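Kindly go through the following sequence and its backbone structure tokens. Advise at your convenience whether the structure tokens fit the sequence:

___
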Amino acid sequence: MLLVFLAKGDTFAELGAHFGIGTETARRYVGEGIAALTPLAPTLTEAIDASGESRRLLLDGTLIPLWRCDALATETNPDPLYNAKHREHGMNVQALTDTSGELVFLGEARVGSTHDLTAARLDGIVAAATDADVETSADSGYQGAVGTIRTPVKRPKGKGHNGWEKLANTALARLRAPVERAFAALKRWRVLDTVRISPNRVTAPLQAIFAIHQKRSSLARA
């Protein structure tokens, strides 16, 4: 039932009808399954250790679409779920992958208006990567992270990049390309097409999916 919920994105009413149980029972079973899987997701420490001899990881963020929730509005931010970059409401999630694009860490789901660098710092990624001396490649959204976070060369105001700066940025973009593979694999789970649960509960199903993904990858390598 949990796999059907995650893979197909069925509502609890649809799940209950399919399995011949009540809607609330389906909700409870799915919740229990997610609670059992969530602790199995790799931690940030395990992700850093997974960098191996290369001592290199890739960092990026993605937006998980979410139904708009006005309950989160504040005086300073009337629409915290709105992400200006994607022009969509959702939750910002940070991820680390190895150089082949294999997902090794998934951070906490935060409101869409959260800046990527802020989210990465709150997840402890910037500090952990720097402390472990793991070179981590990221896009321009993480400029200012310093430490071992490598970002594109910023274009000087009113000027263009010179030759070596263009080459460096091209090389970094090529190195970072595999990270999109991880997000593509993550978003094959249809429950993430448009999440209908409370924003405060999005992290748990994401971690459950991550745990399943990791288990499946380890079996494929065996």
Notes: The longest strand covers residues 56-65. Residues 1-40+199-222 form one domain.
